[in-house]
Amino acid sequence: MRVVLLAFVALIAPLPALAQNCPQPLGEARRLVLVTADNFNVSEASAQLFERATPAEPWRAVSLAEPALIGKTGMAWSYFFRAFAGKSEPIKVEGDKRVPAGFYRIGKSFGTLPPNRAGYLHVTDGLTCVDDASSPAYNTIAARAKIGRQVHGENMWRVPEYKRGLLVDYPTHAKARAGSCIFIHVRLPGKTGTGGCVAFPQARVEALQDFAEPGAVLAVLPRQALGRFKGCLPELAN
Questions:
Q1: Distance CA 170, CA 105 (A)
Q2: What CA–CA distance (Å, rounded) separates 34 from 62?
Q3: What residue numbers bound the domain in which 216 lies?
Q4: Domain assignment present for 122
Q5: 85 and which of 77, 118, 161, 181 could share a cystine (Cβ 3.0–4.6 Å)?
């Protein structure tokens, strides 16, 4: 009888966030970098870190909110999260200088500075991120010698903001020109926007490298869309 009762209690217990149709990879995340902006057209945003022991537990803030810099023209929904877009809300396309709204796994640390941890991608001469949607290498990082000079890409070793950074596991769609080369990187003094990435002061980027090492998810959203993911995201103070 006790076994039956326990089974019944399990059936009526609140479902964990993972079972509430939360978009992946958010649903399974245990560490979260939440970046929010007042609307789709601003380049200044706010970022806060959260943790939870399991997807069934509520999020717990582990940092205060702090400034973040996003795309020069704001943000737009990623092609893969366009189903969440409201009427007239923009969809990300290559070259629009908007950070893609959605949820993404944070990948390995990188930078032009010498490695500061295991698994670090050291950006050296020739390393290029391909932003040419006509290339089979679109949205990948490769040596310029391998992809050829005719393929358009960002010469990463020449970008001062890439002293320290984190790769973002950004899914794209070449036919839709859905964007490429999305990173967390260093914010330089005087900069008023990025090409479509998220930027912080160098010390903060290095702290985020530590935070994301066990695995973390980056969420980028306008505040007006937070309610569309009720039960999946932490509550934010107004």
A1: 8
A2: 12
A3: 31-51+64-225
A4: yes
A5: 77
